[in-house]
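User: Second chain of the day. Same drill as before.
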Amino acid sequence: MKKIGIVFPGQGSQYVGMGRSLYDSDEDIKRIFDEADRILGFSIKGLSFEGPEDELRKTYNTQPAVLLVSYATWIKLQKETGLEPIVLSGHSLGEYTALLVSGFFSLDEALNITRKRGIFMENAYPEGKGGMVALLSPFMELVRSTIEEISLDGRVITIANLNSPDQIVISGEISALKEAVERMKGKGYKKAVFLNVSGPFHSPLMREAADKLLEELKRLKGFELMYPVVFNVDASLERNKEHVYEKLYSQMFSPVRWEECVKRMVDEGVEIFLEVGPKNVLTNLIKRIVPGVPCFSVENPDDIEKIKEILK
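Assistant: Same format as last time:
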């Protein structure tokens, strides 16, 4: 069997109805969703299956919901195929799913810490004052110099995601983002898209939220990782549980180096990528980062059947 790398999606991949076909297909999966409802004290499966969308989109709901659906998809996939990945990773929130699958977190811990992470992030900066902008086909030299110039007056603006050769995300104060987009129009990027997020994530404005998160993380024992994980903050491969806390802390206010993470997984021997969870955002990015390495998205029973054929 070819060497498999598994990646898990982050916030932005959620949609009303995600996970429903999995739930209906398998009694073991039903128990996972029902257990999640018990752990969180409300129906996260109801929110995932039926919405409303504006509630699901709230950061503190999105994070445990995407983690839950991704984890349930993984359990079903492994049950049906028996595959053993050589390495895991995840985009931002998806890093928590990777750590759950690797055994660092229990399901109880993973759901509760992502719920708290969402609350801390939501409350970290006044609503409407901060945000994020995706830049397609960016001219990086101009992007970096523009950010540096705007930052001179004390406003916060930074690169938040290095997603692929033709996509980055910048984050910070809204006034600084708008100025940057206007300054670089026609020469710094092909297209700019203001993202529908509630705050300036992966920027220094999240440091207070990160401090609160670290306090919560330190209360968790953490278990040894069954599979190595490539971390967003520096694209390092880790199996030592003692390094996890600092990586998750720093990730909150540092860029997600996704392009580097994918290339590191290939360097480790990955021959096929599987994106496990809702939508196919990472699949599309990976195809642009390493076009020679096959990547498939898996989020429902039909996808799993197709993967079984591919892995034969």
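Residues 59-81 form the longest helix (23 residues).

User: Great, on to the next one.
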